[in-house]
Design brief:
Radius of gyration: 20 Å
CATH topology of the largest domain: TIM Barrel
Enzyme class: hydrolase
Number of helices: 14
Organism: Peterkaempfera bronchialis
Pfam family, one: Amidohydro_1
Helix content: 25-40%
Bound molecules: zinc ion
Main location: cytoplasm
CATH architecture of the largest domain: Alpha-Beta Barrel
Strand content: 15-25%
Shape: globular
EC number: 3.5.2.7
Number of strands: 17
CATH superfamily of the largest domain: Metal-dependent hydrolases
Distance between the termini: 21 Å
Number of domains: 2
Length: about 400
């Protein structure tokens, strides 16, 4: 095993209050030692131990790799025209998903795999070292299982989302589709998935249907997460909390009871500002959730219809400008928050024993992620101890 000393870090986000100041556990003039795929040592550069090789960060800021806990990457086709129409005044509707379903079913395995690989690389170049990936554009037994087999080649964080929308073949029989999703489709998908998810929204699945899907998945060993309260107020958030879901995702339209339920549970509120940006909708109120004591994660929701971005720095900048988050809170949500939403303790922090996922910025502080929006600041990325960028 080779050890690498990274020194010359002007400001290090550890997300460990035992190691530095504030919730980010900030350390000035820091150094980190990587040992194989793990972090072996963190502390002041003046006390750094020797290592086999050294890397001088040159006064750059460092932080944990971003943990993007919500993405839909197994798809084919292009929806530029739909985006363009929407930006010309037409509203977003959940049914647009069916456009991508048709293109995805028609695509080869190789084409789908190449698209996932391209997007994972694109995210990595922007500092993302852990990426969740959902199915949901197949909506047949074989197409959903295929999507998860392909996703599993790129990440262990695979999510069965057969309940994305009702498959077109079942347009007149949504109950029959839920039977498929909780029966034969689940049988085919469970071996390739860690999580189960549903789109609980008017036009997709109601609370009883979403509960049936998540409960059936949980019975097969999958842990629930839920698309909830995106397009309007609904029962999704409280269902997620009731079922002990790892995360309620979107949380755009919340009442006081939803906020209280999230704040008093282990269910993370995952906010996806790329979706509001790309649908010209009102942003979720992160300030309200944070002030109530909820755990907040930020993720991209990368998908071809409503949020075609892989950029966590973009999401951080929007969250700070539009959602009432401080730069510290947004960076925490994009790293430690995502890790919580995936129930991971090995990522989202820089501490001895954690996975060696580390990002260097061409900036003296993590605050530049919001202060310099749209600027490519990521200068180096280690993932599992391997220098990838
Ligand atoms: Zn989504």
């Amino acid at each position: 095993m080779t050890t690498t000393l990274i020194t010359g870090i002007s400001s290090l986000v550890t997300n460990d209050e035992a190691q530095g100041s504030g919730p980010l556990g900030l350390l000035a003039e820091a150094a980190v030692v990587l040992d194989g795929d793990r972090i072996a040592w963190v502390g002041p550069a003046s006390r750094a131990p020797a290592a086999d090789t050294a890397h001088d960060a040159g006064g750059r800021a460092a932080l944990p790799g971003f943990v993007d806990s919500h993405a839909h990457l197994v798809f084919a086709g292009d929806r530029t025209a739909e985006f363009n129409a929407r930006m010309s005044g037409q509203p977003y509707r959940a049914g647009g998903i069916r456009t991508t379903v048709a293109a995805t079913r028609a695509a080869t395995d190789a084409a789908l795999d190449a698209n996932v690989a391209r997007l994972v690389r694109e995210a990595l170049l922007q500092g993302t070292t852990v990426l969740e990936c959902k199915s949901g554009y197949g909506l047949t037994v074989e197409d959903e299982a295929r999507a998860l087999r392909i996703a599993a080649r790129h990440t262990p964080e695979t999510t069965y989302l057969g309940a994305h929308v009702v498959a077109p073949e079942y347009a007149d029989d949504p109950a029959g589709y839920v039977d498929l999703v909780t029966g034969p489709m689940l049988d085919a998908c469970a071996p390739h998935a860690r999580w189960v998810d549903a789109f609980c929204e008017r036009g997709a699945f109601d609370a009883d249907q979403a509960r049936a899907v998540l409960t059936a998945g949980a019975a097969r060993g999958l842990t629930p997460r839920l698309h909830a309260n995106q397009l309007g107020h609904g029962p999704g958030v409280r269902l997620a909390v009731e079922l002990g879901a790892a995360s309620a995702d979107h949380c755009t339209h919340l009442d006081d009871a939803d906020v209280a339920a999230l704040a008093s549970s282990a269910t993370v509120a995952t906010l996806l500002p790329g979706a509001e940006f790309s649908t010209r909708a009102a942003y979720p109120d992160a300030r309200r959730l944070l002030d109530a004591g909820a755990t907040v994660a930020l993720s991209t929701d990368c998908n071809p219809g409503s949020s075609f971005t892989t950029s966590m720095p973009f999401c951080i900048a929007v969250a700070v400008r539009e959602m009432g988050m401080t730069p510290d809170e947004a960076v925490h949500a994009a790293t430690a928050g995502g890790a919580r939403a995936l129930r991971r303790t090995d990522v989202g922090r820089i501490a001895p024993g954690a996975r060696a996922d580390l990002v260097l910025l061409d900036a003296p502080s993590h605050v530049h992620l919001a202060y310099r929006p749209g600027v490519p600041l990521v200068s180096a990325v280690w993932r599992g101890g391997v220098r990838e960028v």
